[in-house]
Design a protein that fits this description.
385 residues; alpha/beta; TIM Barrel; eight-stranded parallel sheet; globular
C-alpha cells in the first residue's frame, strides 16, 4: 500500500498544474520536440485536476485593495491552482508562484478591427471576391497569412516571455474567421486575398488558368477543382503558425507549456466546418500543443450540459493530449441567467469528464462578482455538494 501511495504522489506531482508539468526537449535543428506529458492521473480524483481561472479581476470586490499575497491566498482558498490570462505584472506572478499557483499568458491571434482599419489588406476576402462581413458586433476576423501580422505576433510572444515569468501561453482566435458561438454558426468561405491566392498556388504547385481574371473567378475555380488541397492549405497555415509560436516561446522558456482555445466541433459537424472554414485540425495541432481548452459554452451554443463532457472526451481521444475545457459561468447570451446550481454543475461536468485533466471557468470575474456563483465555484473546486 505504501508503494502504491508513493506512486500516486509522483503521478500527482507531475500532472498538469502540479510541479514540473512536462519535459521539453529541443531538437538539434532548433525545433521544440513534442512534449512527454502525463495527462491522466491514475487513481486520482477530481481534486487532483487543474482548476485554472480565466482572468484575474483585481478590481472585483473579493480582491480589491488586497496585497498580491492576499490575492494569492484567496485564490488558494477558492481551490484555484492556475490562472490563465494572468495580468502582466512581475510581482503578482511571483506571488502566485510562491503560493504554488501557475500563471499563464493569453493572446488573441487573428482578430481585431484595428487591423482592418490600419491594414485594409488584412480584411479577409470571401468567395465572391468581397470583404467578409462583421458577423457579430466587435468580432473582426483577420487573414492569417499576413506576414507583417505573423511577425508582430511572434515578436510579442518573445517579448512576453522575456519580460514575465509565465508558465505558458494560451492562444485564442487561432483560426480562420467564423462566428461559431451560435446554434446556427455564421461562416463565409475565405480568405481569397492576393496573399492567400499566391501562397496557395505556391504551396500546392497549382497554376491558375489564364482566363481567370477576377478574385471571384479564382475562388470559384479553387472550390470546384481543388477543394481538398484548399482545405489542407488552410489547416497547414494554422498548424504551421502554432509551430512557429511554440518555437519562439521555447527559445525564451523551454519549460513553458502551450495551450489553445479550440472551437468545440468535431470533424463531422456543420459539414466539416472546423476544417473547411476554420482550418483548425486538432489532430495536426497535437504535435505542438500541450493542452487543449475547447470552448464548450453550452448556453452560447444551445447545447445540453452533458455535451461539455462528450466533447472533452472526443478531443482527448482525437489528440492524446491533456484537455482543460473552458466552460461558461457568464450570463450569455442574454437574457440567460446562470444560477449558482447551474454554475456548480457546469464546473463539475468539466472536471468529471473522463477526458478532462482540469477545467477553466469563463470568466473568474463573472464568478466572483456574484455571491451565489462564487459559492458554487468554491464548492465545485473543493468537491463539496
Amino acid at each position: 500500500m505504501k508503494a502504491a501511495n508513493s506512486l500516486l504522489v509522483l503521478l500527482i506531482l507531475f500532472a498538469p498544474g502540479f510541479g514540473a508539468d512536462h519535459t521539453t526537449r529541443i531538437h538539434a535543428n532548433g525545433e521544440p520536440a513534442r512534449l512527454t506529458f502525463t495527462s491522466t492521473i491514475i487513481g486520482a480524483t477530481t481534486m487532483d485536476k487543474v482548476k485554472c481561472a480565466f482572468g484575474l479581476p483585481l478590481d472585483s470586490k473579493p480582491f480589491k485593495g488586497k496585497t498580491y499575497a492576499e490575492v494569492a491566498k484567496l485564490l488558494k482558498e477558492m481551490g484555484i491552482t492556475a490562472v490563465c490570462a494572468c495580468p502582466q505584472d512581475t510581482e503578482l506572478i511571483r506571488e502566485l508562484h510562491r503560493a504554488g499557483i501557475k500563471a499563464y499568458a493569453e493572446m488573441g491571434m487573428f482578430v481585431g478591427k484595428r487591423h482592418w482599419e490600419a491594414h485594409p489588406e488584412s480584411h479577409p476576402i470571401n468567395a465572391e471576391g468581397k470583404p467578409i462581413g462583421e458577423p457579430h458586433p466587435g468580432y473582426c476576423g483577420v487573414c492569417p497569412n499576413q506576414e507583417w501580422l505573423r511577425k508582430e505576433i511572434l515578436d510579442k510572444v518573445a517579448d512576453r516571455f522575456q519580460t514575465f515569468e509565465y508558465d505558458g501561453l494560451w492562444l485564442d482566435f487561432i483560426r480562420y474567421p467564423g462566428r461559431w458561438e451560435e446554434k446556427k454558426p455564421i461562416l463565409e468561405e475565405c480568405c481569397f486575398c492576393d496573399v492567400c491566392l499566391g501562397k496557395f498556388a505556391g504551396s500546392s504547385n497549382i497554376s491558375y488558368p489564364a482566363n481567370l481574371k477576377s478574385t471571384k473567378d479564382k475562388a470559384q475555380w479553387i472550390l470546384a477543382n481543388h477543394r481538398q488541397e484548399w482545405v489542407q492549405f488552410k489547416c497547414d497555415t494554422i498548424t504551421d503558425f502554432v509551430r512557429q509560436i511554440r518555437k519562439a516561446m521555447a527559445r525564451e522558456n523551454s519549460d513553458a507549456i502551450l495551450g489553445i482555445f479550440n472551437v468545440p466541433w468535431t470533424r463531422d459537424e456543420f459539414d466539416g466546418a472546423v476544417l473547411n472554414h476554420l482550418g483548425q485540425d486538432v489532430k495536426a495541432l497535437a504535435g505542438y500543443v500541450d493542452v487543449f481548452s475547447p470552448m464548450v459554452y453550452h448556453r452560447y451554443c444551445r447545447r445540453p450540459m452533458r455535451w461539455i463532457a462528450e466533447y472533452t472526451d472526443w478531443v482527448r481521444q482525437a489528440t492524446g493530449r491533456p484537455v482543460w475545457p473552458i466552460v461558461q459561468v457568464c450570463d450569455e447570451p442574454k437574457p440567460v441567467k446562470m444560477s449558482g446550481d447551474e454554475v456548480y454543475r457546469t464546473l463539475r461536468t468539466g472536471l468529471e469528464a473522463d477526458g478532462s485533466s482540469g477545467v477553466m471557468p469563463f470568466t473568474l470575474k463573472h464568478a466572483v462578482d456574484d455571491p451565489a456563483k462564487l459559492d458554487a465555484l468554491r464548492k465545485a473546486f473543493s468537491g463539496q455538494k
